[in-house]
Amino acid sequence: MESYSVHVKADGTAKPTDTAVEAFLDELLEHAGVVAGDSEHTGYDATFNVDGEGPAAAATSAVDIFTAAAERAQLPALPIVRVEVLTEAELDRDLAQPVVPDLIGVSEIAALFGVTRQRASEIQTRAGFPAPVARLKSGPIWTRASITRFLDDWQRRPGRPARLTTGRTLDAAPQADEVGVERTPSRKVPPKAAKKAPKKRTRVSA
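-> structure tokens emitted (206 positions)
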């Protein structure tokens, strides 16, 4: 026999009463149960422990326990729409996963792309760049996974010159007129003026 964590969900058109949900929890206490449901939503579900000779047997046993407990708690009889069976090792692995995804801002994007913050802000305006998941006072934020996918796809596009940054192939740095900076024409120094120009000196400390 092996111990399993089983999640069972029943759903339909009927809404349970809060009293029945409380009674449902009491019925599953011996199985270390946790229940969800209220009078404002249809359906109810529970996660609890069962023992069985394999996942299939554990699922069958869990449905019987779930149905009997719901009936004793006077919950509406609704069809079972979901049964999920996990071993204790699988449950521990799921619980170890972060609930909040890895989020990054403009500074992290600049470091990931090997560019300045200003350049990273310009890249955000490109077609196909992922939309931020939120906008805070400090600026927009994205999931790291979405930015990584964009960067991988961007590198595969042909015709992009290489750049010595972090080993990634990126756009060449924008020219002055591409970012709205007016070019200053070069000045030619007449020969005479060049001769009169003082030599540059560098002081070397002993």
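The CA atoms of residues 119 and 142 lie 17 Å apart.
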